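Our working data are protein records whose layout never changes between entries. An example says more than a description, so a record of this kind follows.
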Amino acid sequence: MKKEEILEKSREEKRDEGKEFVFNKGRKSGVIGMVILFGILAVFNLYNNRQETTYALVAMFFGYLGSESFGIYNLTNKKMDLLKTIIGCILSVSFLVLYLNGVRN
């Protein structure tokens, strides 16, 4: 391929790699912050014997991981990403059920 052809294809895609880089960097920071906050809240709940609230936190955490893996699977079609999606969703629903049963009782 010639240089001009490559440049033309890049222009046709209408992607801004600079914006994509910034958004990916922001998402990475957001995930790190969420994991830190999750850890603090989980330890606090375990220390104060608030098991039902811990179930809600874990359900939310695995729901996020399953959703993120689903988005990645849609782009890559890798079986490992599909497996992470399924496991994340199953764990999220399981902990959500535990949380809802604890709230009802």
